[in-house]
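User: Here's a structure from my thesis project, written as structure tokens. My advisor, Dr. K., wants to see whether a designed sequence matches the one we expressed. Can you design one independently, without my sequence as a hint?
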């Protein structure tokens, strides 16, 4: 999947209630359209502000995490990466960006795509290192927030579907034993299925199809999807779709 700047990031809600991400919107096309053209000054200013804030947050984390016990450092690192992930995905809806005209927005999208890939790529690289050292961040060892934070980072590693597939295999048994939130497994299962062109199982992945209208990607055995959703702690599809009325406005 490609990143989307077209809608407010629904995954912002994932930090509290677990929600899906919007459909990718073709930033590669914006990048190719604007290739070679320097961004307007107002766009350069917005990009510089983003870069400065990312650098500030990384420096602050490096300073604050020195000398922490290993388990606390791991949890803090996951929280830090999720904060960057969410800042990245919310920035295109920040006050400075939403005031751009059409030409400025195209230039911003083209330049911001590189930053999107950079932050996601670095988060994935570090997450892989942590997983090699600690395995999955189980609820009993690291707490529910670390479990959720790590899942969100994997969910957004769309540039590395084999990695997502590998983590999905880990989460299945952990969901059964209560060491990861079963909703993590459901969302990641659907994410991988859609990326591979297969029907999803829980109906968590979809797209806006009109004003106030959201539709899921194809679902296997759709007649029984609500039963499967209930098994992992998700509400009905009707309730889920209703949450997108405003987001697809």
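Assistant: Designed independently from the structure alone:
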């Amino acid at each position: 999947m490609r990143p989307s700047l077209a809608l407010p990031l629904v995954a912002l809600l994932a930090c509290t209630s677990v929600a899906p991400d919007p459909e990718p919107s073709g930033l590669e096309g914006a990048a190719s359209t604007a290739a070679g053209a320097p961004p307007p000054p107002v766009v350069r200013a917005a990009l510089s502000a983003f870069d400065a804030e990312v650098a500030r947050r990384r420096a602050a984390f490096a300073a604050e995490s020195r000398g922490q016990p290993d388990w606390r450092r791991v949890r803090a690192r996951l929280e830090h990466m999720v904060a960057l992930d969410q800042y990245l995905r919310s920035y295109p809806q920040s006050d400075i960006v939403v005031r751009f005209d059409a030409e400025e927005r195209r230039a911003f999208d083209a330049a911001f795509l590189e930053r999107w890939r950079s932050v996601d790529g670095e988060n994935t690289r570090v997450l892989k290192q942590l997983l090699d050292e600690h395995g999955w961040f189980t609820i009993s060892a690291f707490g529910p927030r670390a479990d959720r934070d790590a899942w969100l980072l994997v969910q957004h590693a769309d540039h590395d579907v084999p990695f997502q597939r590998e983590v999905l295999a880990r989460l299945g048994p952990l969901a059964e034993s209560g060491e990861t939130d079963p909703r993590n497994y459901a969302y990641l299962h659907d994410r991988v299925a859609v990326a591979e062109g297969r029907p999803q199982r829980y109906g968590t992945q979809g797209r806006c199809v009109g004003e106030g209208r959201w539709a899921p990607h194809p679902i296997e055995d759709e007649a029984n999807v609500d039963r499967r959703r209930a098994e992992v702690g998700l509400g009905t599809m009707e309730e889920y779709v209703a949450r997108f009325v405003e987001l697809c406005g």
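When you compare it with your expressed construct, this may help: Strands lie at 206-210, 213-216.
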